[in-house]
Amino acid sequence: MSRNTADRATRRVEPMWGTMISLLVLDPVDPAVIDDVFGWFRRVDDLFSTWRADSEISRIGRGDLTVARASPEMREVLARCEQMKHATCGAFDIAVGASAEIEPRPGLAPLDPSGLVKGWALERAVDRLAHGGVSHLALNAGGDVVVRGGAGDDRPWRIGLQHPWRHDRVADVVCVTSGAVATSGRAERGDHVIDPRSRRPAHGLMSATVVGSDLAIADALATAAVAVGSIAAPWLTGRSDTQALAITDSGAVVTTSGFDEYRST
After folding, report:
1. Domains and CATH numbers, the chain
2. pLDDT for 65-93, tens place per residue?
3. Which helix (H) or strand (E) holds 146?
4. Residue 185, CB-side half-sphere exposure with 13 Å CA sphere
5. Which tens digits make up the pLDDT trace of 230-259?
6. Which residues are within 8 A (CB) of 97 and not within 5 positions of it... i.e. 6 or more apart?
7. Euclidean distance between CA atoms 11 and 33, whole angstroms
8. pTM for the whole thing?
9. Which ranges constitute the DSSP H helices of the chain?
10. Sign of the C-alpha dihedral computed for residues 62, 66, 72 and 75 taken in this order
């Protein structure tokens, strides 16, 4: 980023969704546009938080609200989740928490679209920023990242992928001008990650990163890959719209055939 670009950049960081959301805008922007984006993030929490009894997703899970009477945003997200369930052959399944085989715990809900909704919400935020005249930005929510327009001086954005065991190191660096990067892992949640197919704790992959054009899709694929481990390979490698990097429980790094095009040189 050049000095002139840095001088006009706008940054904002807020704690939300149990993580930190950071926004970097390189274009001149009306502060009201930034306020609107973070207001949108608060609405997403109102709708989709599994930690809040008053959220729409919690009310649907209890049977207090039907999907037909829910918000348009809820209906859109649930439809996208169903699409990803089919795309991953059931590896992405937001209803896994409803299974009687899984021990209840805080935050575990009968319906939990968290593995897709964060990426979806960031993509909708980028739409709002674009409507406000922003074409160069980086938006990061807990390691799920959307970037647009490059980092200035015709350079791509460089995005570090957190190492699953060494939090002071990155596992790799990808370069993206406009696109999305989603990472899911077991290092922090461990046995709380459940394989929807077996209803047992996930194993095989310690982390998975997916790069593509749509963060909702990348987010869901990364979540599903960690949940089911090595059997995720067929639908990760069979997609033309994404590339992936995974780190196995033994520390081996495996990638799809086109992932190198994103690697830093």
Report:
1. 3-262 (3.10.520.10)
2. 999 999 999 999 999 999 999 999 999 99
3. strand 144-148
4. 24
5. 889 899 999 999 999 999 999 999 999 999
6. 108, 109, 110, 111, 112
7. 13
8. 0.93
9. 3-8, 31-48, 56-62, 72-87, 114-131, 215-228, 233-237
10. positive
